[in-house]
Amino acid sequence: MKKQLILEDGTTFTGEAFGAHSDISGEVVFNTGMTGYQEILSDPSYCDQMVVLTYPLIGNYGVNREDFESIHPALSALIVKEYADIPSHWRSTSSLDEMLAEREIPGLSGVDTRKLTRLIRKYGTMKGTIRPVEANVEEEAAELSSAHFRRDQVARVSTADAYHAPGQGPRIVLIDYGTKHGLIRQLIQRGADVYVVSYNTPPEDILKLQPDGVMLSNGPGDPADIPEALPTLTALLKAIPVFGICLGHQLICRALGAKTEKLPYGHRGSNHPVKDLQTGEVAITAQNHGYTVNEASLAATGLVVTHRAVNDQTVEGTAHESLPVFSVQYHPEAAPGPDDANPLFDRFFKMIETTKSHV
């Protein structure tokens, strides 16, 4: 079945529908990773986004049950140059087409993803919609231009109920803004006693769990859309060691008075170089964000910049001058992906140990 992707500026791309054949709208973004499409599909940070994969052949190793990063994928659609309908891998349990159909996610193949990516890089992320080829392009584009998409992504992907993954090590409360399973795996591998709580859990309920540390997860959307998180974080940052990742990083900065702003087309991929300003080392990182912290606004927050993106010099990490608090914009838990930044979890555990020894 032929379908077309219509962008808000009227640009169209015609392709072949696969997965679910439903019509859908969302923000069109691109990811530059060569592998890991199953992680991308199941990353809650892509909630309501139509993801363009720049690598030309997708689906050749199929889909397996182990590599999901969430139970319910939240992205709007997947757009590819070519997908493999007959996968070949010993762990594969279904094809990409079957998985998308089962999860009711539309796919579009045969798209010139190189041209589409260049458009996004030139003009920034755009709203888009997948419609039948008979649809009126002018009407659809005009409707997109004035459309206001939902802004409650975090509420929809965060866990509704707290849950516990027992361990013998430090007790970590993970605030779930749209966490990937990889974050929980990293904590469990280090023996942590993990409590995962909803994004809107009051600080007094978190402190009742007597955590040794708090981790703030990744998540979708604009950090300004969850102002209710800031009073909670303001209370926690003064009481306990905190480590924030991606959206969690942005929320720490906002809670301490900094501002965030939207990037033209975001950072999404598994090959982004980041420089550690303290050691001078460059790590290859996995990233998925459309917003960044405004560096000038950090001046009176007590936070210092610790990491910087090599490609565009944006803020990629901060640490507080006096509190046991640090954060990174990228994903040290990426799986599959580079593991250069994995020791950040060890740094968090060391911070907890040091803080407890000084109490």
Automatic annotation (TrEMBL):
<dbReference type="GO" id="GO:0004359">
    <property type="term" value="F:glutaminase activity"/>
</dbReference>
<dbReference type="Pfam" id="PF00988">
    <property type="entry name" value="CPSase_sm_chain"/>
</dbReference>
<dbReference type="InterPro" id="IPR006274">
    <property type="entry name" value="CarbamoylP_synth_ssu"/>
</dbReference>
<feature type="binding site">
    <location>
        <position position="290"/>
    </location>
    <ligand>
        <name>L-glutamine</name>
    </ligand>
</feature>
<dbReference type="InterPro" id="IPR036480">
    <property type="entry name" value="CarbP_synth_ssu_N_sf"/>
</dbReference>
<dbReference type="GO" id="GO:0006526">
    <property type="term" value="P:L-arginine biosynthetic process"/>
</dbReference>
<feature type="binding site">
    <location>
        <position position="247"/>
    </location>
    <ligand>
        <name>L-glutamine</name>
    </ligand>
</feature>
<dbReference type="InterPro" id="IPR050472">
    <property type="entry name" value="Anth_synth/Amidotransfase"/>
</dbReference>
<comment type="subunit">
    <text>Composed of two chains; the small (or glutamine) chain promotes the hydrolysis of glutamine to ammonia, which is used by the large (or ammonia) chain to synthesize carbamoyl phosphate. Tetramer of heterodimers (alpha,beta)4.</text>
</comment>
<feature type="active site">
    <location>
        <position position="333"/>
    </location>
</feature>
<dbReference type="GO" id="GO:0004088">
    <property type="term" value="F:carbamoyl-phosphate synthase (glutamine-hydrolyzing) activity"/>
</dbReference>
<keyword id="KW-0067">ATP-binding</keyword>
<dbReference type="InterPro" id="IPR002474">
    <property type="entry name" value="CarbamoylP_synth_ssu_N"/>
</dbReference>
<keyword id="KW-0436">Ligase</keyword>
<keyword id="KW-0665">Pyrimidine biosynthesis</keyword>
<keyword id="KW-0315">Glutamine amidotransferase</keyword>
<dbReference type="GO" id="GO:0044205">
    <property type="term" value="P:'de novo' UMP biosynthetic process"/>
</dbReference>
<dbReference type="GO" id="GO:0006207">
    <property type="term" value="P:'de novo' pyrimidine nucleobase biosynthetic process"/>
</dbReference>
<keyword id="KW-0028">Amino-acid biosynthesis</keyword>
<dbReference type="GO" id="GO:0006541">
    <property type="term" value="P:glutamine metabolic process"/>
</dbReference>
<comment type="pathway">
    <text>Amino-acid biosynthesis; L-arginine biosynthesis; carbamoyl phosphate from bicarbonate: step 1/1.</text>
</comment>
<feature type="binding site">
    <location>
        <position position="291"/>
    </location>
    <ligand>
        <name>L-glutamine</name>
    </ligand>
</feature>
<dbReference type="GO" id="GO:0005524">
    <property type="term" value="F:ATP binding"/>
</dbReference>
<dbReference type="InterPro" id="IPR017926">
    <property type="entry name" value="GATASE"/>
</dbReference>
<comment type="pathway">
    <text>Pyrimidine metabolism; UMP biosynthesis via de novo pathway; (S)-dihydroorotate from bicarbonate: step 1/3.</text>
</comment>
<feature type="binding site">
    <location>
        <position position="219"/>
    </location>
    <ligand>
        <name>L-glutamine</name>
    </ligand>
</feature>
<dbReference type="InterPro" id="IPR035686">
    <property type="entry name" value="CPSase_GATase1"/>
</dbReference>
<feature type="active site">
    <location>
        <position position="331"/>
    </location>
</feature>
<feature type="domain" description="Carbamoyl-phosphate synthase small subunit N-terminal">
    <location>
        <begin position="1"/>
        <end position="131"/>
    </location>
</feature>
<comment type="function">
    <text>Small subunit of the glutamine-dependent carbamoyl phosphate synthetase (CPSase). CPSase catalyzes the formation of carbamoyl phosphate from the ammonia moiety of glutamine, carbonate, and phosphate donated by ATP, constituting the first step of 2 biosynthetic pathways, one leading to arginine and/or urea and the other to pyrimidine nucleotides. The small subunit (glutamine amidotransferase) binds and cleaves glutamine to supply the large subunit with the substrate ammonia.</text>
</comment>
<feature type="region of interest" description="CPSase">
    <location>
        <begin position="1"/>
        <end position="170"/>
    </location>
</feature>
<feature type="active site" description="Nucleophile">
    <location>
        <position position="246"/>
    </location>
</feature>
<feature type="binding site">
    <location>
        <position position="45"/>
    </location>
    <ligand>
        <name>L-glutamine</name>
    </ligand>
</feature>
<comment type="similarity">
    <text>Belongs to the CarA family.</text>
</comment>
<keyword id="KW-0055">Arginine biosynthesis</keyword>
<dbReference type="Pfam" id="PF00117">
    <property type="entry name" value="GATase"/>
</dbReference>
<keyword id="KW-0547">Nucleotide-binding</keyword>
<feature type="binding site">
    <location>
        <position position="250"/>
    </location>
    <ligand>
        <name>L-glutamine</name>
    </ligand>
</feature>
<protein>
    <recommendedName>
        <fullName>Carbamoyl phosphate synthase small chain</fullName>
        <ecNumber>6.3.5.5</ecNumber>
    </recommendedName>
</protein>
<dbReference type="InterPro" id="IPR029062">
    <property type="entry name" value="Class_I_gatase-like"/>
</dbReference>
<feature type="binding site">
    <location>
        <position position="288"/>
    </location>
    <ligand>
        <name>L-glutamine</name>
    </ligand>
</feature>
<feature type="binding site">
    <location>
        <position position="221"/>
    </location>
    <ligand>
        <name>L-glutamine</name>
    </ligand>
</feature>
